[in-house]
Amino acid sequence: MLDHITVQAIEFTSHIGVTDHERRIRQPMRVDVELGYQKGAVASAAESDDIAKAIDYSRAVECIIQIGTHGEYRLVERMAEKMVQALFTELAVADVTLWVRKLKPPIKDVHDSVGIRIARTRKDIVPEPKPASFLLESSRLLKKGTILDLAAGRGRNALYLAGLGFSVDAIDRDEQALRELADRGKERGLTHLSVHPIDLESEPSRTSAFNSEQYHERYDGVLVFFYLYRPLFPAIIKALKPGGVLVYETFLIDNHEHYQHPRRTEFCLAHNELLQLTQGLRVLYYEEGRQEGTMDNDTSFTARLVAQKGIV
């Protein structure tokens, strides 16, 4: 029997309802979720007392709220399925049980809620991770060589580039996600894909290692998608070889203002901030604004950058 972590009463409002009138007014919603650990993962997390070896339920909550507050839905069934798909994509979980409820359904005789409870295993739904659309557009600017995928998650971008013949190092704090990535790489015969579990924010010694001489001018390209930790930018720039290219996309403050995601504003870029953080690089492409299909085919406000390190 698998171990589970449970999060109850995740609340938000959503444009949801069968009629146009109902969808025009944000409806109060509540979600309960159970996330199943993979075999042996709880023991590993308990022994190490390390969040990187556990299911990060804060990421699950953010994921659920993002899906629930983006766009419009006619049916709770559609919202629930999209949430499950996103949770399997973002987290290394074995199964998901989700209870999605409308707290004020427009039926006079219902005095509590109406909702749906669904249960899925990874065997039921194993979404093939698609590379970021901005990477597809900008990969032609990457010189064949060694690429660093920073905050790689389940490795949608790392798998794509490794499949094109790049040598890829994937770094993330989620060890289970990296193990899955390594397994998928082996299944595909991608021998030049390696994973490195590093928490760049809460482990100063490892952050220092990333900023050490062994990483200086090591990479022909660095990818960062939907991750923002400002103190890392000097190390990211140092990690590029002369002529190396940085491809970066993450949320603007506009996304928080429109969708309340990310929930904390420090995870969002101010206007033109990405240009300031990457001063010294030659800008090959830069854009701020509304983008389609960035996260689970939804609309997001992002900053997109392709920039090159100078050749001495």
Mean pLDDT: 88
Instruction: Report the count of strand segments.
Output: 12
Share of helix, binned: 25-40%
Per CATH, the superfamily of the largest domain is Vaccinia Virus protein VP39
Largest sheet: 7 strands, mixed
Give the name of the CATH architecture of the largest domain.
3-Layer(aba) Sandwich
Class of the largest domain, according to the CATH hierarchy? Answer: Alpha Beta
Distance between the termini: 59 Å
Unreliable runs: 204-208
- The order of strands across the largest sheet is 8-7-6-9-10-12-11
Q: Which tags fit this structure?
A:
single chain; 312 residues; alpha/beta; GTP Cyclohydrolase I, domain 2; Rossmann fold; 2 domains; 7-stranded mixed β-sheet; 5-stranded mixed β-sheet; 12 strands; 30% helix
